[in-house]
Design a protein that fits this description.
371 residues, Rossmann fold, 2 domains, six-stranded mixed sheet, globular
């Protein structure tokens, strides 16, 4: 399922310009600072902005073609939209809000009760919008959008007004909805963590343009622009669960990437891709999405021995970025996986670190944090 965009939208002091084809398999994240054009792009896709010039093609159907004066209205595009604010009908209770959406989509293939359970809003059905918390409103708005049975669901920073508990609940709900309904989603956020939690692929926007697109881990770990320096202080990983060491409170993991190191390092059989984290509730051979803060990783130039730090991997220095302060950010490449490491500039000089150098990184089990 593809979404092909070739559009321009001009405002005083801002221009949105996107020429991109997006494969909508899974959840697609759009990442960028405020004012980068994320919301403007969503509104063009949804048909909520008629000022854009160009073409929008979704599933081989032309939704907009300015040259041919073709424009399909938002309500006819089969695209759902969940805004930052829930926009519920205040004069209707929750159940009536849901039935309003359900009645607009006839015949229904989705069961209202199933969607209510998916979004965990059973206790809220008789309440009105004014009686709901921010997180509850967003769950109701999500349920209402799903009941319109869209082929694509757009979510514009739906977690921005939520507290941490409500945010975590929504992330779980969104994952389950995607898995159960196989519903394509485009999820907009300025939060790297939210994108890592949800998306399979990510688009990075800056000044109204798409500057990068690809697999979420690759893109986020390889960002070297000003966006990265501000946001990217952690390494995003997908690891495979191999064994639970319950007596020690640990889970054994493996890097879910192919072997690709230089000959000297690869020949060292003592360096393996096994990692350990605090015990997690995941099935054996399942995938664990997690991250490591750059400040939790240290670097040695020799193989660590006789240390309580149980995770250590061989790699190569790929990049050194010396900041104006006392810190430096390094990219260490391990098995085609980039690790972002923040150490002092003093340590860079003391260890005589240079590009292409073979090193080892190490980090504690509790440094691997699952989403």
């Amino acid at each position: 399922m593809n979404l092909a965009l070739d559009i321009k939208l001009t405002y005083p002091g801002f221009q949105l310009s996107c020429q991109q084809t997006i494969n909508l398999a899974g959840i697609t994240g759009i990442l960028g600072h405020s004012g980068s054009g994320k919301t403007s792009l969503l509104r063009v896709i949804a048909g909520l902005n008629k000022d854009a010039i160009g073409t929008v093609v979704f599933k081989n159907q032309t939704l907009q073609n300015s040259s041919a004066k073709q424009f399909i209205k938002a309500e006819q595009r089969n695209i759902g939209f969940v805004f930052q604010d829930a926009r519920l009908f205040p004069h209707l209770n929750v159940l009536e809000n849901l039935h309003f959406a359900s009645k607009r989509c006839q015949p229904n293939s989705l069961n209202v009760e199933e969607v209510i359970k998916l979004t965990k809003i059973e206790p809220l059905l008789s309440r009105h919008a004014g009686q709901l918390s921010a997180g509850e409103k967003q769950r109701v708005a999500l349920a209402r959008a799903i009941l319109s049975e869209p082929k694509l669901l757009l979510l514009d920073e739906p977690l921005s007004a939520l507290d941490n508990k409500a945010r975590a609940e929504m992330v779980v709900i969104l994952r389950e909805i995607h898995q159960r309904l196989q519903l394509a989603m485009i999820y907009v956020s300025h939060s790297v963590i939210e994108i890592q939690q949800l998306a399979e692929q990510v688009i990075v926007m800056e000044k109204g343009e798409i500057i990068q697109q690809g697999h979420v881990h690759q893109v986020i770990n390889q960002l070297h622009s000003s966006l990265a320096n501000n946001l990217n202080s952690q390494t995003s990983l997908t690891l495979t669960v191999k064994q639970h060491l319950v007596n020690y409170g640990l889970t054994q993991l493996e890097l879910a990437t192919s072997e690709k190191n230089n000959k000297d390092i690869a020949a060292n059989n003592t360096v393996k891709s096994k990692l350990y984290c605090n015990l997690v509730n995941h099935k054996i051979n399942s995938q664990l999405r997690c991250y490591i803060l750059s400040s939790d990783i240290s670097i040695t130039t020799t193989m660590p021995k006789d240390t309580s730090v149980i995770n250590h991997l061989a790699g190569e220095v790929k990049d050194i970025n010396r900041f104006s302060g006392d810190s430096a950010q390094l990219i260490i490449c391990v098995k085609e996986q980039n690790f972002i490491v923040t150490i002092s500039r003093y340590s860079v000089e003391k260890l005589s670190l240079v590009l292409g150098q073979n090193v080892f990184i190490q980090f504690k089990a509790n440094a691997i944090r699952s989403y």
